[in-house]
């Protein structure tokens, strides 16, 4: 039996919710960043599922662009985390509550 | 067959995503990164089931390969000491669970309203007929390339902008992670 579109969307929603939970609950910057990646991938699953079930390739093209932008975003974000760690010696968001470095 | 594979990949993806975020056994970022790799591979399995073979390959290459190597590299570079387990803020945990659970329930019920039971079979039949009408178009790498680069309806300008964005990101990363000159 072939899975339906709503099943794929449900999986995508579950992944997105888990990623959001990670961003809200966890305090480690690196794990928050991984949860952000999870949310991006949930959106990708929804787009590819839509593209498959509607017979339109635009969704897959958009996922292609999202993957590229996500790769660039990861590199910049991790460089920012490394720079922050050099200044403050911590990767815990509760220690990073001031706007001043 | 397809249903079994879908169940396998979907449950694996959701389970390992949960283990990325709330792992009861370990709070080590390396464990989370490893489970994130599992999630990415299961998601690429879902892409294969959806006929997006090129994207499945790219997902494994970029996420399970490049991005996760970068994550592990930074985790080991920072070498964060296992900080004394801080008191978990129960209020924020409960609030986060509540908000996320409510969001998911809203999303789920909206899906169920849109693709409800009585219309589901009809809709699925129509969709599969639609997919069968254009079988070679969806999914194959050639079709994706044509959709990307066709002169009339292509995405050539966004593609070029993406390449500039990658260059900017590269320069920015080098600038950010450089040691400050004294």
Cα-based radius of gyration of chain B, to the nearest Å:
22 Å
Q: Measured on Cα atoms, how large is the radius of gyration of chain A?
A: 17 Å
Class computed from helices, strands and strand pairing of chain B: mainly alpha
Overall geometry of chain B: extended
β-sheet strand percentage of chain B: under 5%
Uncertain stretches of chain B: 132-136
Gap between N and C termini of chain B, in Å?
Answer: 63 Å
Unreliable parts of chain A? none
Q: Which pair of chains has the greatest number of interface residues, and how are they split between the two chains?
A: A-B, 69 and 86 residues
Instruction: Work out the helicity level of chain A.
Output: over 70%
Could you explain the architecture of this structure?
- The complex is a heterodimer of chains A (101) and B (182).
- Chain A has helices at 5-25, 29-54, 58-88.
- Chain A is mainly α and 101 residues long.
- The radius of gyration of chain A is 17 Å and the shape is elongated.
- Mean pLDDT of chain B is 83; it is low at 132-136.
- Chain B has seven helices and no strands.
- Chain B has helices at 2-21, 29-49, 53-78, 90-114, 117-133, 141-149, 156-177.
- In chain B, 21% of the residues are buried.
- Chain B has 182 residues and is an all-alpha fold.
- Classes of the chains: A mainly alpha (101), B mainly alpha (182).
- Chains A and B meet through helix 1, helix 2 and helix 3 of A and helix 1, helix 2, helix 3, helix 4 and helix 5 of B.
Features:
heterodimer; A: 101 residues; mainly alpha; 3 helices; 77% helix; 0% strand; B: 182 residues
Task: Indicate the topology.
The complex is a heterodimer of chains A (101) and B (182).
Chain A: H1 5-25, H2 29-54, H3 58-88
Chain B: H1 2-21, H2 29-49, H3 53-78, H4 90-114, H5 117-133, H6 141-149, H7 156-177
Helix pairs in contact in B: 1-2, 2-3
């Amino acid at each position: 039996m072939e899975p339906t579109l709503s099943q794929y969307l449900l999986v995508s929603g579950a992944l997105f919710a888990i990623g959001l939970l990670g961003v809200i609950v966890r305090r480690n910057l690196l794990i928050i960043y991984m949860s952000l990646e999870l949310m991006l991938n949930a959106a990708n699953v929804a787009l590819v599922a839509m593209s498959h079930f509607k017979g339109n390739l635009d969704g897959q093209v958009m996922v292609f662009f999202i993957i590229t932008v996500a790769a660039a975003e990861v590199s910049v974000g991790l460089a920012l985390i490394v720079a922050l760690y050099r200044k403050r010696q911590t990767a815990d968001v509760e220690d990073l509550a001031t706007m001043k470095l | 067959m397809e249903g079994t594979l879908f169940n396998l990949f979907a449950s694996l993806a959701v389970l390992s995503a949960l283990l990325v975020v709330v792992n009861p056994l370990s709070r080590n970022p390396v464990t989370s990164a490893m489970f994130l790799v599992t999630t990415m591979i299961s998601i690429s399995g879902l892409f294969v089931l959806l006929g997006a073979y090129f994207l499945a390959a790219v997902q494994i290459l970029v996420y399970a390969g490049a991005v996760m190597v970068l994550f592990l590299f930074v985790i080991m570079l920072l070498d964060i000491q296992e900080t004394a387990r801080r008191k978990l803020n129960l209020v924020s945990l409960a609030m986060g669970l509540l908000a996320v659970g409510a969001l998911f329930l809203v999303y789920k019920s909206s899906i169920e309203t849109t693709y409800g039971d009585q219309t589901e079979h009809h809709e699925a039949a129509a969709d599969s007929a639609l997919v069968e009408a254009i079988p070679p178009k969806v999914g194959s790498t050639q079709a994706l390339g044509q959709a990307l680069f066709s002169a009339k309806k292509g995405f050539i300008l966004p593609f070029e902008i993406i390449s500039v964005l990658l260059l900017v990101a590269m320069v920015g990363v080098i600038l950010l992670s450089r040691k400050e000159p004294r």
